[in-house]
């Protein structure tokens, strides 16, 4: 009898611990690891090791409102997108949603829009269409969606490891045009104190997303998209843009 009583007591204890553990697991917030790049004014390193920018502030508001835990780290773009391809519960932003990438990630957004532009030296020829820049050397950088966009259309793309170097490559005549986002191009020129370079042609309009590793549960993707829609309706996204001197 004592043995049976002991077994029943142990059984109740195990059951209680299992229920307690299950309750704790349910109470723990969902956690995401976020990778991004230096792509101002959308995402960029701020003071004291923080990450800031329009997209970053939108992502923070999104995850805070959804009640998620998260960490954000800045990487070279090629590494950032590789992490989001291979690491569970990892997402990358700000990612242009292209046909080539569609099936590789689960998508939350759009976060922001982005016009792609050709920049040229002041006084240089101003193409009216992208086809008029055929056979000219166009600078971009590794991992950027602009590279594939141009190469599939037969353009000569000079691919740098980082977009930071392209304004000075353009000034030095090593490339004929620099292809980048219009806002980021203007931001980099101002940041580097470069004059004599200007946008000459907008050639594509894209929207940028939070792109998550393909195994992220659909329920989490739905929750994030619904939360983002709520932020848009509340005017929170417009207020974030305004804080950087822009409008969505």
Automatic annotation (TrEMBL):
The UniProt record lists the keyword Membrane: no
Signal peptide positions (record): 1-27
UniProt keyword annotations, A-Z: Signal
Domain Solute-binding protein family 3/N-terminal: 31-248
InterPro entries: Solute-binding_3/MltF_N
The keyword DNA damage appears for this protein: no
Pfam families xrefs: SBP_bac_3
PANTHER family linked: PERIPLASMIC SUBSTRATE BINDING PROTEIN FAMILY 3, SOLUTE-BINDING PROTEIN FAMILY 3_N-TERMINAL DOMAIN-CONTAINING PROTEIN
Name assigned to this protein: Amino acid ABC transporter substrate-binding protein (PAAT family)
Organism: Roseateles saccharophilus (Pseudomonas saccharophila)
């Amino acid at each position: 009898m004592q043995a049976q009583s002991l077994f029943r007591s142990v059984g109740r204890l195990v059951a209680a611990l299992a229920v307690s553990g299950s309750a704790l697991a349910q109470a723990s917030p969902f956690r995401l690891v976020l990778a991004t790049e230096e792509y101002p004014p959308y995402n960029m390193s701020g003071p004291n090791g923080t990450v800031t920018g329009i997209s970053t502030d939108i992502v923070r508001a999104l995850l805070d409102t959804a009640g998620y835990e998260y960490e954000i780290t800045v990487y070279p773009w090629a590494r950032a997108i590789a992490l989001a391809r291979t690491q569970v519960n990892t997402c990358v932003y700000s990612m242009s949603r292209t046909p080539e990438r569609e099936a590789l990630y689960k998508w939350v957004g759009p976060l922001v829009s982005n016009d792609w532009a050709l920049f040229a030296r002041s006084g240089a020829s101003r193409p009216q269409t992208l086809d008029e820049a055929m056979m000219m050397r166009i600078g971009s950088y590794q991992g950027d969606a602009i590279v594939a966009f141009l190469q599939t259309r037969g353009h000569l793309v000079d691919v740098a490891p980082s977009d930071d170097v392209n304004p000075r490559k353009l000034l030095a005549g090593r490339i004929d045009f620099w292809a980048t986002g219009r806002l980021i191009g203007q931001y980099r020129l101002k940041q580097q104190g470069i004059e004599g370079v200007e946008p000459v042609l907008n050639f594509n309009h894209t929207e940028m997303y939070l792109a998550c590793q393909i195994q992220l549960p659909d329920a989490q993707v739905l929750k994030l998209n619904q939360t983002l829609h709520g932020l848009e309706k509340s005017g929170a996204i417009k207020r974030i843009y305004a804080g950087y001197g822009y409008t969505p």
